[in-house]
Write a structure and sequence with these properties.
Elements lengths: L4 H16 L5 H12 L3 H4 L1 H23 L1 H24 L3 H30 L4 H29 L4 H22 L15 H16 L2 H21 L2 H7 L4 H26 L7 H19 L8 H30 L4 H8 L1 H21 L3 H24 L5 H6 L1
Length: about 425
């Protein structure tokens, strides 16, 4: 069993990602947090933005730590994520917004970044012939976590009279067990040997600087970073307004909630489906072209028909399902696309650098949509206006896809 790829890679990856993926459940309890501590919801919203920011930046900074020791990185992830969850519960009881920012945003965010990276390379090493399927399986867990955890969290909220603190305590304990089991099981193949530079803080920052220079002076990496950033930015801009859009086109609260679960499943299915599909292409970047063309087509159709203002329900639902699926597919294909261009030796470090795009998008995606809606109006016209910005950005991403990210030498040789 110790050399079984499902036990050593797939199961621990799902345990880790199904835990940390609940960061996307923020909308389930953000209103309750704001009401309990007596703060504006817009102010509380920064906790989620900070969590995504620290996710991306901790992945960028700690990518080399993950590269050297997945056991250490997965333990760091377990400690930080669960401490952040329990600490957020305590911060809510203390009615301290700064403490919520620290626990949910900073501490939990660091757990998110290290936990996200830790199983990825291990999966690609165990599933060499189906790297896309393997990483898609794990990252699908990250996307599916929202669909699984939302009703459980809602149950605890109802049980404790909409006080989210106790929900955080209970869920933190559950995730601590899940993630620690994943940490214990996670293991690289015995035949994989790699050498790493040893050293202390000075060497750590020297390696970090080297990884940064290597990544951000490479045209292909910059192209992938821009594609990844735009996909997340646009995805967050629309996903953050999803419930409001469903309401604007005339759907009841119950139907909107059901469709929220459908889009969450589409997010997870996109992570698994697009990555498995990418394994069939000689140039893995083809999958991003498909994602962006699909996003442009449905965004354009909704703009041309004034779909939100005219309450064209089918078109608006199709758009949000496609955006969720493409958002998820963009995540699952990044590590394998990077491995095709930069090899497996330093994939965790390069992948970590690329996840800095997630950090930046976490600060800009929601905020762009909010700024447009505040200017135009919190109504169908405002949500429709967001599409002009996301549609234009999807076009930019498609151009980058063709111009900057060419097939790797390996892919050219197989063509």
């Amino acid at each position: 069993m110790s050399n079984n790829k499902w036990v050593c890679a797939a199961i621990p990856a799902l345990l880790l990602h199904c835990s940390i993926g609940t960061v996307y459940c923020w909308g389930t309890f953000s209103k309750e947090i704001a009401e309990y501590i007596g703060a504006e919801k817009s102010a509380v919203q920064w906790a989620f933005s900070l969590a995504i920011f620290f996710l991306g930046m901790s992945a960028a900074f700690l990518g080399d730590v993950v590269e050297k020791d997945i056991k250490k990185s997965s333990l760091i992830a377990t400690i930080c994520f669960t401490t952040g969850m329990v600490g957020t519960g305590a911060a809510i009881l203390l009615k301290s917004l700064p403490l919520i920012f620290l626990c949910y945003g900073c501490i939990m965010g660091i757990g998110l970044g290290t936990g996200y990276l830790s199983p990825v390379k291990t999966l690609m090493l165990w599933f060499k012939d189906r790297k896309g399927l393997a990483t898609g399986l794990a990252v699908a867990g990250f996307g599916l976590a929202k669909a699984i955890a939302t009703p459980i969290m809602q149950f605890f909220l109802n049980t404790f009279d909409n006080n989210p603190a106790y929900m955080f305590f209970i869920m933190g304990g559950i995730y601590c067990v899940m993630m620690f089991i994943g940490h214990l099981l996670l293991k690289k193949p015995a035949d994989w040997v790699e050498a790493h530079e040893e050293g202390g803080i000075k060497e750590f920052f020297a390696t970090l600087a080297k990884n940064f220079k290597f990544s951000f002076t490479n045209k292909t990496f910059i192209g992938i970073w821009i594609m990844f950033y735009i996909n997340i930015h646009c995805g967050l801009a629309l996903i953050s307004q999803e419930k409001a859009i469903f309401t604007a086109v005339g759907l009841t609260t119950g139907i909107a909630a059901t469709l929220g679960s459908v889009t969450a499943i589409a997010n997870a299915a996109g992570r698994l489906g697009f990555s498995a599909w990418a394994d069939t292409f000689k140039d893995r970047n083809t999958i991003y072209k498909i994602i962006f063309i699909m996003s442009i087509a449905l965004t354009g159709a909704t703009i041309l028909t004034n779909g939100i203002e005219n309450k064209i329900v089918v078109l608006c639902v199709a758009l949000l399902i496609a955006v969720n699926a493409g958002y998820g597919g963009g995540f699952s294909n990044v590590p394998t696309l990077l491995s095709d261009h930069f090899g497996m030796k330093s994939i965790s470090a390069v992948h970590g650098m690329c996840l800095s795009a997630w950090a930046v998008a976490g600060l800009t995606g929601n905020q762009m949509a909010t700024a447009i809606i505040e200017r135009v109006g919190d109504n169908a016209t405002g949500y429709q206006s967001v599409l002009y910005a996301t549609g234009a950005l999807y076009v930019v991403a498609l151009i980058v896809c063709f111009v900057l990210v060419k097939p790797s030498k390996k892919e050219k040789a197989e063509a």
